[in-house]
Amino acid sequence: xxxxxxxxxxxxxxxxxxxxxxxxxxxxxxxxxxxxxxxxxxxxxxxxxxxxxxxxxxxxxxxxxxxxxxxxxxxxxxxxxxxxxxxxxxxxxxxxxxxxxxxxxxx
Length: 107
Description:
Layout: H1 3-19, H2 23-30, H3 40-45, H4 48-69, H5 72-94, H6 96-106
Helix pairs in contact: 1-4, 1-5, 2-6, 4-5
């Protein structure tokens, strides 16, 4: 896997991790895994949009570089996977309130 694709995956996984920072504690509390350590997620939530924006820029850069180098046919699957992860992260961030309300109703 070449460097642009690797960078796009790291960015997308980071974005997905940051996007779930507010949904994950609710899910863990629902499973009985609560505790004071969950307060760490509040600090991460403040930077979630910045991380998502950087991940999106990395992903777009990877698509452009692979297209210019002519290696897009070889890494299209990897880039599509990274794009799906990135879109999932954005969907979680924009629907965070609904997801948390649903999890609260399950409690």
